[in-house]
Specification:
Length: about 170
């Protein structure tokens, strides 16, 4: 297992995460629009389509052209993180359509931490100068790191966050 294979595996997993996030947003565009509106974003009806399209384009670019795709992912994640930080600092208790509009927990610093982690993944994914198949072992190693990080964030959320009740 080489450093290059780990870097490529980071890119492949980042691409998978971005595609999954896009799929969850596109699955229910009305709920995504409502979530973007609750976050105070302008033109939420446009963003409900534009954001997942951007996520898919960036995901493809991460795999096909890692240096550019990883850099584009960092820009995208910084933009998302700025929005989340503004919402948390405002004190608004609204859920985010970060991974689909089914969230019940309000945006919190844990979402910002998650995005910083994803940006670090994007940074590592931007290192390889060529595309390629990372290999199974690097994919498993990076997957374990992502799963452990996700589990820790979920535990922290369960400990510190209170869900926002949604009306049906």
């Amino acid at each position: 297992m080489t450093a290059r294979s780990i870097e490529l595996a980071c890119g492949w997993w980042l691409a998978a995460i971005l595609v999954w996030a896009a799929f969850l947003k596109l699955r229910d565009p009305d709920a995504t629009r409502a979530s973007f509106d609750a976050l105070g974003l302008r033109s939420p009806h446009v963003l409900a389509w534009a954001v997942p399209v951007a996520e898919v384009v960036v995901a493809a670019t991460v795999v096909l052209w890692p240096p550019f795709g990883g850099s584009a992912a960092i820009v995208l994640l910084v933009a998302f993180t700025v929005v989340l930080t503004q919402v948390v600092r405002s004190g608004a208790r609204v859920p985010c359509a970060c991974f689909g509009a089914t969230a019940t927990s309000p945006v919190s610093w844990l979402d910002v931490v998650r995005n910083v982690g994803l940006a670090l993944l994007a940074l590592v994914a931007s290192i390889p100068s060529t595309r390629g198949w990372p290999g199974l072992l690097p994919l498993v190693v990076v997957a374990v790191a992502i799963v452990v990080s996700s589990a820790l964030l979920r535990l922290a959320r369960a400990q510190f966050d209170r869900p926002v009740l949604r009306r049906s």
